[in-house]
């Protein structure tokens, strides 16, 4: 099943990567933001697990990529992040393309990262930042019995995937 791409979804220079603006709704009680809608994504991207991570200022997570997993990140604050993406898929029409985007408190976004797209993010703010991820694969498989679906690049000083 294919889902029609809503007109508010932004496409960058990398094929199949979606940037989805998050609308923060504020009232006298505080705020609310929808992170995921089942009607937005193709079922092959629907989450089977979710987690929240905290990243300290100046710290980078990644770069790494997945063979099968699609990540669905949400950056909404309280800090800002530089997100780095590289298309490492040899059969992609945008193979070799790179994108860097600032998101988070100043620009809340969800980000769909398909398998084979190398990704990293760095907290560029002055406070701890939270990132929500809803992946379409279980980390280390059912009951954590399988190899982790990651190709890590952060330890390779010769990797073409460098975070500035």
From TrEMBL:
GO CC annotation terms, alphabetical: cytosol
Single annotated GO MF: dTDP-4-dehydrorhamnose 3,5-epimerase activity
Enzyme Commission identifier(s): 5.1.3.13
Signal sequence range: none
Protein's name according to its UniProt entry: dTDP-4-dehydrorhamnose 3,5-epimerase
Function: Catalyzes the epimerization of the C3' and C5'positions of dTDP-6-deoxy-D-xylo-4-hexulose, forming dTDP-6-deoxy-L-lyxo-4-hexulose.
GO terms for biological process, alphabetical: dTDP-rhamnose biosynthetic process; polysaccharide biosynthetic process
Residues carrying the site annotation Participates in a stacking interaction with the thymidine ring of dTDP-4-oxo-6-deoxyglucose: 139
PANTHER family found in the cross-reference section: DTDP-6-DEOXY-D-GLUCOSE-3,5 EPIMERASE (PTHR21047), THYMIDINE DIPHOSPHO-4-KETO-RHAMNOSE 3,5-EPIMERASE (PTHR21047:SF2)
Entry superkingdom: Bacteria
Origin species: Thermogemmata fonticola
Catalysed transformations (reactions): dTDP-4-dehydro-6-deoxy-alpha-D-glucose = dTDP-4-dehydro-beta-L-rhamnose
Taxonomy of the source species: Bacteria, Pseudomonadati, Planctomycetota, Planctomycetia, Gemmatales
Pfam families: dTDP_sugar_isom
């Amino acid at each position: 099943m294919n889902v029609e791409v809503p007109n508010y979804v932004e496409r960058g220079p990398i094929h199949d990567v979606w940037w989805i603006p998050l609308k923060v709704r504020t009232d006298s009680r505080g705020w609310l933001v929808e992170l995921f809608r089942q009607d937005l994504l193709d079922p092959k991207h629907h989450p089977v697990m979710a987690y929240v991570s905290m990243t300290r200022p100046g710290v980078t997570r990644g770069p790494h990529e997945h063979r099968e997993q699609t990540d669905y990140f949400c950056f909404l604050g309280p800090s800002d992040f530089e997100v780095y993406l590289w298309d490492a898929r040899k059969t992609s029409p945008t193979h070799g393309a790179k994108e860097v985007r600032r998101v988070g408190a100043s620009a809340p976004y969800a980000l769909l990262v398909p398998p084979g797209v190398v990704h990293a993010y760095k907290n560029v703010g002055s406070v701890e930042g939270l990132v929500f991820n809803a992946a379409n694969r279980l980390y280390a498989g059912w009951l954590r019995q399988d190899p982790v679906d990651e190709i890590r690049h952060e330890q390779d000083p010769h990797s073409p995937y460098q975070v500035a």
